Amino acid sequence: MGLTPVPGDQLAAVSTAMEMVERPRPRPLPPSPFRLSHWVAPESEPYLALFRRVGAPWLWYSRLAMDDARLRVLLDDPKIEIYAAVDRAGIEIGMIELDFRVEGTCGLAYFGLVPELTGKGHGNWLMAHALAFAWRKQVRRVWVHTCTLDHPNALPFYRRHGFVPTKRTLETFPDPRLLGLLPMDTAPQIPVLGSVRR
Questions:
Q1: pLDDT tens digit string along 112-162?
Q2: Which residues are within 8 A (CB) of 124 and not within 5 positions of it... i.e. 6 or more apart?
Q3: Residue 168 — pLDDT band, cuts 50, 70, 90?
Q4: Cα separation of 158 and 168, whole Å?
Q5: Stated pTM of the model
Q6: Shortest CA distance to 22 belongs to which of 164, 168, 156?
Q7: How high is the mean pLDDT of the chain?
Q8: Is the pLDDT of residue 97 over 80?
Q9: 38 with 196: CB under 8 angstroms?
Q10: In which order are the strands placed within the sheet that holds 35-39?
Q11: CA–CA distance, 87 with 33 (Å, rounded to integer)
């Protein structure tokens, strides 16, 4: 068994690619106090605010590292669909981001709820909607990636909803806290080893 050293300013994660190649059997949507709002070409700031609220505990940062021009290319693309889960007070508490840019395929690029709602069954409601939106007439494959920095139940959750693991990769990347993209006290379960870049 080999160990690979990782520089202190980097993070390492095992990423699992998962896919679904058959449309799930229809079933009733689980009840929920929330609703979904389709964000067509959303403004950058509200999108990034929701991205942070949902993803910061798991160190999501790819969208935070983009300049606005690159981010706008994604947000303005009609083949990328973004849905915000909204509570009764009108506060965004979750997100679904679907990527239809590859013909016949839908990627579940981002999916999640704010941490205070995790583990309460609301993810089943959100996933039911995500799969209903993803499986269109021309779609033959739906994929998602998860990694060891995600919520510990992410992989079993995706499997329970019909995704099958297909490949594992090891990825390393700069710690977004050290880049100033996320506060230093974000994701305390993952230790910060390096020092802030100036």
A1: 999 998 888 899 999 999 999 999 989 999 999 999 999 999 999 999 999
A2: 30, 161
A3: very high
A4: 15
A5: 0.93
A6: 164
A7: 94
A8: yes
A9: no
A10: 35-39, 80-86, 92-99, 105-113, 141-147, 10-20, 164-174
A11: 7
Query: What is the pLDDT confidence band of residue 25, given thresholds at 50, 70 and 90?
Result: confident
User: Residues 181, 143: contact at Cβ < 8 Å?
Assistant: no
Using DSSP, state whether 68 is helix, strand or coil: helix
- Angstrom CA distances, 56 to 23, 53, 93, 123, stand at 31, 6, 13, 17
The pair of structure tokens assigned to 117 is 């709602």
Q: How far apart are CA 144 and CA 108, in angstroms?
A: 5
* Strands, E assignment, the chain: 10-20, 35-39, 80-86, 92-99, 105-113, 141-147, 164-174
User: Do the beta carbons of residue 93 and residue 126 sit within 8 Å?
Assistant: no
For residue 197, what pLDDT band results from cuts at 50, 70 and 90? low
The CATH code for residues 29-174 is: 3.40.630.30
